[in-house]
């Protein structure tokens, strides 16, 4: 027997929790129901706790064999269906509230106003905790607490000393160059200020003043077709790849001026160009090649191979043009069909010349355009800021490259 005083039980290790099968539990409960047997006597007989055996007997009386096997409380079927219905209602309510939160966040991200003002208005009501409002609307809690504490007061337009004089200088530049945005205007202003020894301007200040004076350019909403271009047209140094292309400039009287040019894909300088009222021939392109070699190397042949990138026009793809390129130590390269992005440097210059020069200057006839073209090209090389050149002009970038680097010590 388990409680025999003559029996000694040695426990060698920590005893794990005992697991009883459902049949074992039923057999012990049935023994307690026999005449003359009690719960304590059956528990001592089988070496189990009387309270545990009493719990098995109570669950047997309430739920039968299923309650004993589950070792837990048994809920009535009606109560179970009621609880399941409440769970479904809560799940639907949670899903609806989650959707409302997502809609609110999307509306806030698309709203033109500032979220900080909306967060202050909501937190000032006192209905919601400030932390929850800050996390929901995506604003800083410390700033929200400070604004709620002192009250959100509308701030007037920021003004700084010297803004009026600077705005007058900006207006003069935009009158002369109406297609320039705030970054190129900033580059022109800083170029003049560096020459006079003044501190450069921040482009954000120029943007603020141009916004106040309604001098900003209108945003364009055109969408370009998506096409993958894994190649890189821009060369890592000058005189490694030259790009060439052509364009047409229509005149008001119906005449057309056709221009062919060659540009370095690193420093963006237009090295040579030709213009005509007729068609661009292969002989003109060959003269353009020779002019580029003479300008960059002061020789009749390049000292090392230089890539000549162009489209598939007949003037560029002619056998005489390709043979002449070999004689000048130029490697003729051609862009894929219907891929203007492969000649992106030339295409960018075409857009710049038409937007910043041709469209804002008078073009009564071809003679007037031919007379203005040298000034346009010279202004582009000397003054036009480039984002890829850190807002410097091509000639300014070339001069900066030729200067020795300052000593760091």
UniProtKB/TrEMBL annotation:
GO terms for molecular function: DNA binding; transposase activity. One of its GO terms (biological process) is DNA integration. Residues 232-402 form the Integrase catalytic domain. InterPro entries: Homeodomain-like_sf, HTH-like_dom, Integrase_cat-core, RNaseH-like_sf, RNaseH_sf, Transpos_IS3, Transposase_8, WH-like_DNA-bd_sf. Keywords: Coiled coil. Residues 80-107 form a coiled coil. It comes from the Bacteria. NCBIfam families: transpos_IS3. This is IS3 family transposase. It comes from Muricoccus nepalensis.
